[in-house]
């Protein structure tokens, strides 16, 4: 119990609820971090090894992400201890039990995250009447299918292009993780003139300085193969993508992939963070010291949650894209301009910007 209070500060958390349910076997935690701007939105994560600490950190990250994006929502997160690949009936029982347990906590709107999907959100909504990231049939905007987050990453790169004088036309990009985020980032950047020179997935990577053809990568993934099997490219070990010869490195897979032992091997001019917390503590500062610009995760990858917030208000796909483009490009311009003027790493500027917005919203409340 002691550790929980260690997370509290002036911004939150506002509510912490631990749930155990003997009937369903549910063990879960809900953290509502801050709701000054409106009811919190945040994913529901299911994993066998989720921790309370992870839940607290992710809830705060959502407070910042939603505030930075100018959404009328605070941040929250829920986690369920369990294997997401368990038989569907068991998973449905757990998700429905969680939904019932948090039904009265109207300050939290669940969304999909690792281990949960649109079907899980449909179960949630069926129980308690609210959830985002719903199936299309229930008015949802399928954010991974339309590539909301990858679209937002491209909007971030376009905004950075001007501030940092890093032209996208001819820029060499390297993408770690060719899933919902990485694949759509590539599909949005290549038409702007960028060249995908390196790519990886969980099984390996491929490099071709002349540029990899997206349709061929898509065909490999559709056939269940790894991008490492790309014909004619040079195969590389999975984690070597970090050191790829490129102008823009886009981590879009796992947390903490940029670490003390590989940070100095990065050759990119800019790191565009598609994944959440892809850079371990301290590494962004060392990139900054080497003149490498980082577009922090909660600024760059907000496309998904912006899409969810638009869905929540009954908006459609084109409304979601317009909002993503607008919010992300404004934020990137502001964060990078402030960071340049002050000589600080962009994350520090970005956190300050988000905190300012949360505090302003808090000042308007009783
Ligand atoms: P996904 O499961 O669709 O794709 C993940 C990809 O990463 C897959 O291609 C997988 O093979 C690959 N991968 C896994 N481990 C790897 C490794 N060690 N090295 C290289 N590749 C590896 O997931 P996603 O939805 O694209 O999410 C990717 C990241 O972005 C996650 O950190 C997620 O939390 C974050 N994120 C996603 C969204 C979204 O809208 N989906 C929004 C914000 C942040």
Features:
366 residues, alpha/beta, 7-stranded mixed beta sheet, 5-stranded mixed beta sheet, 13 helices, 12 strands, globular, binds nicotinamide-adenine-dinucleotide
Summarize the structure.
This protein is an alpha/beta fold. It contains 13 helices and twelve strands.
Q: Please work out how many helical segments DSSP would assign.
A: 13
Q: Pairing-aware structural class of the strands and helices?
A: alpha/beta
The helix content is: 40-55%
Q: Identify low-pLDDT runs.
A: none
Structure description:
The structure is a single chain. The protein has 366 residues and is α/β, with parallel strands linked by helices. 42% of the residues lie in helices and 18% in strands. It is built from 13 helices and 12 strands. It has helices spanning 2-5, 52-68, 88-102, 118-128, 143-146, 148-164, 180-189, 214-222, 283-289, 297-300, 303-312, 317-342, 346-363, and strands at 15-21, 26-34, 40-47, 75-81, 108-112, 172-176, 195-201, 204-207, 234-236, 248-251, 270-272, 293-295. A 7-stranded mixed sheet has the order 9-8-7-6-10-11-12, sandwiched between helices. Helix 9 links the parallel strand 11 and strand 12. Helix 6 (148-164) packs across helix 11 (303-312) and helix 12 (317-342) crosses helix 13. The protein is globular. The model has no long low-confidence stretch (mean pLDDT 96). Nicotinamide-adenine-dinucleotide (NAD) binds at residues 143-144, 149, 176-182, 200-202, 238, 252-254, 274-276, 301, 304.
């Amino acid at each position: 119990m002691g550790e929980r209070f260690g997370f509290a500060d002036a911004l939150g958390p506002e509510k912490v609820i631990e749930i155990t349910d003997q009937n369903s076997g549910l063990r879960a935690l809900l953290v509502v971090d801050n709701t000054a701007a409106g009811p919190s939105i945040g994913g529901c994560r299911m994993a066998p090894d989720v921790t309370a600490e992870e839940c607290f950190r992710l809830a705060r990250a959502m407070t910042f992400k939603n505030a930075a994006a100018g959404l009328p929502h605070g941040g929250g997160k829920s986690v369920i201890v369990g294997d997401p690949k368990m038989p569907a009936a068991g998973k449905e029982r757990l998700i429905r039990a969680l939904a019932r347990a948090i039904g009265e906590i109207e300050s939290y709107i669940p969304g999909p995250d690792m281990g949960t999907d649109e079907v899980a959100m449909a179960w949630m909504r069926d129980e308690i009447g609210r959830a985002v990231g719903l199936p299309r049939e229930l008015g949802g905007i399928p954010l991974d299918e339309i590539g909301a987050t990858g679209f937002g990453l491209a909007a971030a790169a376009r905004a950075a292009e001007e501030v940092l004088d890093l032209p996208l036309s001819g820029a060499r990009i390297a993408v770690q993780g060719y899933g919902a985020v990485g694949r759509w980032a590539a599909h949005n950047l290549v038409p702007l003139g960028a060249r995908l020179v390196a790519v990886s997935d969980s099984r390996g990577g491929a490099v071709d300085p002349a540029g990899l053809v997206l349709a061929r990568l898509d065909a490999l993934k559709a056939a269940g193969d790894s991008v490492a099997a790309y014909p004619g490219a040079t195969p590389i070990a999975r984690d070597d993508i970090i050191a790829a010869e490129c102008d823009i490195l886009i981590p879009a897979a796992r947390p903490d992939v940029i670490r003390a032992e590989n940070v100095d091997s990065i050759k990119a001019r800019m790191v565009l963070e598609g994944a959440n917390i892809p850079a371990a503590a301290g590494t962004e500062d060392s990139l900054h010291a080497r003149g490498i610009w980082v577009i922090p995760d909660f600024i760059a990858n907000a496309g998904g949650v912006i899409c969810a917030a638009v869905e929540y208000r009954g908006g459609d796909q084109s409304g979601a894209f317009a909002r993503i483009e607008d919010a992300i490009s404004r934020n990137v311009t502001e964060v990078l301009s402030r960071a340049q003027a002050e000589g600080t790493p962009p994350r520090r500027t970005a956190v300050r910007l988000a905190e300012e917005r949360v505090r302003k919203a808090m000042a308007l409340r009783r």
